Amino acid sequence: MQQEPVVRIQGVSKIISSRSLVSDLTLDISPGQVFGFLGPNGAGKTTTIRMMVGLMSISKGDIFISGHSVKNEFEQAVAQVGAIVENPEMYKFLTGYQNLVHFARMSPGVTKERIAETIERVGLTARIHDKVKTYSLGMRQRLGVAQAILHKPKLLVLDEPTNGLDPQGIRELRDYLRQLTQEEGITVFVSSHLLSEMELMCDTVAIIQNGKLIDVRNLRAEAGSDALIEVAFELNDADRAADLIQGATVQGNVLVARVSREQIPDINAKLVSEGFQVYGIRNVTHTLEEQFLQVTGGGGIG
Questions:
Q1: Which fold has domain 228-288?
Q2: Given this model, what pLDDT does residue 295 score?
Q3: What is the pLDDT of residues 177-232, one digit of tens each?
Q4: DSSP character at residue 80
Q5: Which fold has domain 7-218?
Q6: Which InterPro entries does this chain map to (predicted)?
């Protein structure tokens, strides 16, 4: 049975002064994953996020979070959300722990045990009693995430969270976001224009351009036995071998065919029986950058 989406965006548009910033956006986000929202700067990512968390009104359509309408059931909807839309807000003259205690007062039911659990989740145990002004940008980002998940939301929303982070900070962010989905069951919705980081971080990516949804790609889909995948056969006479495999294409000395996993041994045996020398067989994988350029017609991401 398919799970109900954590977020359901239905025909959402944002129009300001007759200019459409987001146009008829429809998107379902399933629970328990890191969901990427990818697009060039100015594509409509932040506008969409602001509508999701109630910082901007919705011109048309509606957004549902855990079944609650952002338009008509705002308090119930945003109660399910933790978000960092701008830089995390915190008191730099207080310690990280004092910041969390202060923030917890605004969220009924947050216990000291929950604060301690959250600190461990984001890997700040060793520095939590130091003043925030001594924290690196990556540590402040972690503290911001800790604040956002104190009340055990079902959805964590992060807008361009890797901005300003060094490679180590980005890798650490990626690791603990993955941990949050596994151990807390939180769905993470993260926007970015960095293709390489989204590819490593996300399970699914939605691509937006000029305010319109272009495509949704599952980056972690495992091919079943009957699913078609692209397979490359490196052999001695690819042109002649192409006549044996329906729909195959030739790229130099490589024969590329869309086949099921179970067909691969049969195709290999057929090629060998026909006298071809098969030097190698491999899956053809496409990077997120290649997929992005394919669906956007080669448009830039920066």
A1: Alpha-Beta Plaits (3.30.70)
A2: 56
A3: 888 898 888 999 999 877 777 878 888 999 898 999 988 888 776 444 445 677 88
A4: T
A5: Rossmann fold (3.40.50)
A6: AAA+_ATPase, ABC_transporter-like_ATP-bd, ABC_transporter-like_CS, P-loop_NTPase
